[in-house]
Amino acid sequence: MKRKEFRKLISVEKAREIINSLQVLPRQESLALENAYGEILAEDIVTEINVPPFPRAIMDGYAVRAEDTYACSETEPVKLKLLGNVQAGSNEKFKVSSGESVEISTGAPIPEGANAVVMVEYSSEGDSTVSIYSPVTVGENIMKAGSDIRKGERVLRAGRKLGIREIGVLASVGKKDVPVSKLQVGIISTGDELVHPGEKLTPGKIYDANSYTLYAGIHECGAFPLLYGIVEDNEAAMKEALETAVSECDLILTSGSTSSGSGDVMYRLIDEIGETLAHGISIKPGKPVVIGIIKGVPIIGLPGNPTSALMIFNEFVAPLLRKALGEDKVLKKTEKGIMGTVFRSEGRQQFLPVGLIRERVYPADKGSGAITSLSGADGFIEIPSSTEFIEAGTPVEVTLFGKVEKPDLLIAGGFCPGFDLLEDLSGLRLRTLYTSSSGGFSAIAANTADIAGVNMPSQDSRGPDGILYNIPTIENMGLLDIALVKGYRREVGLLVRQDSPVSGLSDLPGKQLINRNRGSGTRALLDLKITEFVAGKGISKKEFTDSIPGYTSGAKSEVAVCEAVVSGKAEVGVGIRNCTKKNGLKFVKFAEEEYDFLIKKEILETPEVRRFLEVLNSPEFASKLPDGLHVYERTGEIIFFE
Question: Start and end of every MoaB/Mog domain (predicted)?
């Protein structure tokens, strides 16, 4: 048989271009949760419940009204009537009034009327009474409903490899069946010299290593390997194996028979029954590579030499598989970094969940009972008991949670659906901590976030209609070496049921309101708009707000606001337009607000931030923004504070 010379060798860059252009399309199937470990998530997971679904105790003790404990001390305890006991999992109902309490176990639902839990260590129980020796504040030792995961939140993104943490998150939001991507990759090893491991070696034979290294590599990438065994250097046998694999697989990998020797036939078969895209790459080791397509199925012929085959797999095939499955990051087991913020330890040995962002390490712990402490972490650092304080800039070593997807940017601030769009269009991995606008400002001031999403209004003559966004807060906090990037505008209004008679702020008196939390820009805007509304009407703002039941309430998200209105717990909510359609609510607009981005000046020119800003200014972003959000003439404008 005649030799055939390599076609013109292509460069590594050209090889990547060809391989990345191959249409490798995974299939989707549903797996039971217990069988989903190691698989690749095919769809975004948006939770349909709050986690926890109800306010729950995080300590054993007594559920009380916090105000009943304010005057107590170790020497002068307060004595409260004991109504009964609530265990974890119990549905027993109690209503705690002034002077009353309920014994409660960790994980049990907080009784109606109670707003704090006194730890059992600071109490003593008597005959139908309990004595409290230490005061508590509102919310102390309580995990609020949705404080871990909020209803409507995207908890896992399509393309995420499902490890221990992800399986826990899926279970916690009630997912029994999981949509996963299945990418079937066929493996064909060729060569008369090959035998299977475990068989006796005879003269001239070697063990087939490629089938098993490729199998492991494919599996590690999240794809599903199919072994077709060893095929001898025979054109008819190879053709039969290829045709079987083409009918069953989404991608085929062969090893051996790709060179230009007289016994090498793989490249000729691809020419015969398909199309050859390239034969030979200018790389050492690994030159004899053939890339082709047979009946629409991509095929990559790897060299027979195990080292060369593995080299080509790691450099070209593994990235293709990860890209096809949405998991294109190469990850390490340990990584060195520096603490990006001050951390005070508990004075005992600790494994602290942390996030890694461009070699900076940040604590990712949300507190007791929060499973997203792990889903939001890349690994952990071990803190010995002798260490009570870690300064920013301290070198640390992070033990990674297996193969993790490190975020490109850490975002803090007020929730906005625009972030999901920015993440999807930019290809960046954003880790978002929804802390409200005031929390976003604080995170930038403390150097614990890269970007803050902020929408904080202030009464200021420099702004249109006397309202200026974010700049007065920056000035009042004395923030320097930062940039304020103007974002987009959001419609803000009242959220009501479809049959509600509410048509504006004038209808709020007497209506049960669910307001946003203090520190939220939306709540601050409502305050300003009510101030404008009552001006000249002969009543004070306090008189007006006192006439609105629930005005002092404070939901942490628009999702919680919508849920309260839909369930009938409130007649009116306040929030942005976006969440009304999916909840079947009516939107009564009363303003448009400006949602901006606060960015540390030192990272403004990093590739990640430049990509973020590029997408923010793109026509595609403008055209795909959800209802009620829109760009305007100032979008992308940068204001420096130095």
Answer: 186-323
How many residues are present in the chain? 642
Residues 455 and 353 in one domain: no
Average pLDDT of the residues of the chain: 87
Give the pLDDT band (50/70/90) at residue 260.
low
Task: Please tell me whether residue 557 adopts helix, strand or coil conformation.
Answer: coil
Number of domains in the chain: 5
Q: Characterise 128 by phi-psi region: left (phi > 0), alpha (psi -120 to 50), beta (else).
A: left
Statement to judge: residues 433 and 550 lie in one domain? yes
284: left (phi over 0), alpha (psi -120 to 50) or beta: beta
How far apart (Å, rounded) are the C-alpha atoms in residues 302 and 189? Answer: 9
Q: Which two tokens stand for residue 237?
A: 């046998």
CB neighbourhood size of 50 (10 A) = 23
Please answer whether residues 439 and 509 qualify as being in contact, where contact means their C-beta atoms are separated by less than 8 angstroms: no
User: Any idea what DSSP says for residue 2?
Assistant: -
* pTM summary value: 0.54
483 and 474 Cβ atoms separated by less than 8 Å: no
Domain that holds residue 275: 12-25+183-325
Q: Are 246 and 292 in contact (CB under 8 A)?
A: no
At 262-319, the pLDDT tens digits run 446 777 888 888 898 988 887 665 678 899 999 999 999 998 887 678 768 877 898 8
